[in-house]
């Protein structure tokens, strides 16, 4: 399966972005650039703003203050962006039918649906399960199917919100292998995780969030070897950030 070279929607740039829900500040003065390259992994305690940042980067949430641009444009169609949520909903049809639906939504010509669906199911390790009802797949298989649907858009950037949460080690490894494959094909992956081990295995860049703010960001190897902030040192050590 050929994936396009990263272009259109990259970089995704946050400039002093704030998102409020009533009196509650969800994101607070975020300035961040998500550029082409290895995966960017968002870490931080629950409620730190990871999911909101992903949704905003996808264009699903309006900002209260500041601005977000995609490839230098502040209004960009989201056809080159895709997102997989922590608990994706499965359509009441077969696994292949779920992928064909996503291909149709992405305006892929109907004559290509069968071959593209087969390619995508093979990419995520579900070849042979295309006929099975999606809702009867295991949790890990459903998450891989959600990835296949997202990749039907042929995205330049793929946002993943804790895709391995509550999965067993074998299912987690399957998802991580897909992330590596997709990233190697030029898709920018931006992923939130609660798992520091997973962040170490996958990240080229780390962004640590706490209370809606970016506490520290930079190359993953440097972040884990020489964290610059007290919060980062404590978080890496397994302490609670409150």
Flag low-confidence runs. Answer: 1-6
Instruction: Quickly count the helices.
Output: 8
Order of helices and strands: EEEHEEHHHEHEHEEHH
- By helix and strand content, what is the structural category? alpha/beta
Which strand order do you get reading across the main beta sheet? 5-6-7-3-8-9
Calculate the terminal CA-CA distance, rounded to whole Å: 44 Å
Q: Which superfamily, in CATH terms, is the homologous superfamily of one domain?
A: P-loop containing nucleotide triphosphate hydrolases
Biggest pleated-sheet summary: 6 strands, mixed
Overall pLDDT score = 94
Instruction: Indicate the CATH class of one domain.
Output: Alpha Beta
Using the alpha-carbon principal axes, give the shape: globular
Strand percent estimate: 15-25%
Rg is 18 Å
In which range does the helix fraction lie? Answer: 25-40%
Number of strands: 9
CATH architecture of one domain: 3-Layer(aba) Sandwich
CATH topology of one domain: Rossmann fold
């Amino acid at each position: 399966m050929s994936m396009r070279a990263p272009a259109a929607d990259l970089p995704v740039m946050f400039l002093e972005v704030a998102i409020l829900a009533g009196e509650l500040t969800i994101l607070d003065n975020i300035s961040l650039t998500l550029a082409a390259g290895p995966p960017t992994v968002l870490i931080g305690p629950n409620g730190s703003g990871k999911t909101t940042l992903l949704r905003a980067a996808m264009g699903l949430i309006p900002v209260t203050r500041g601005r977000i641009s995609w490839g230098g444009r502040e209004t960009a169609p989201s056809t080159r962006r895709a997102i997989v949520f922590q608990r994706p909903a499965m359509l009441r049809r077969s696994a292949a039918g779920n992928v064909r639906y996503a291909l149709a939504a992405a305006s892929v010509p109907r004559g290509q649906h069968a071959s593209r669906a087969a390619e995508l199911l093979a990419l995520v390790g579900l070849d042979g399960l295309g006929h099975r009802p999606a809702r009867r797949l295991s949790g890990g298989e459903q998450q891989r199917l959600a990835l296949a649907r997202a990749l039907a858009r042929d995205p330049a950037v793929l946002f993943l919100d804790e895709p391995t949460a509550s999965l067993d080690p074998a299912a987690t490894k399957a998802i991580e292998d897909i992330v590596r494959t997709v990233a190697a094909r030029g898709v920018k992956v931006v992923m939130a995780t609660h798992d520091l081990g997973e962040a170490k295995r996958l990240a080229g860049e780390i962004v640590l969030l706490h209370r809606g703010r970016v506490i520290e960001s930079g190359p993953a190897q440097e972040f884990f070897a020489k964290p610059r902030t007290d919060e980062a040192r404590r978080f890496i050590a397994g302490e609670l950030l409150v």
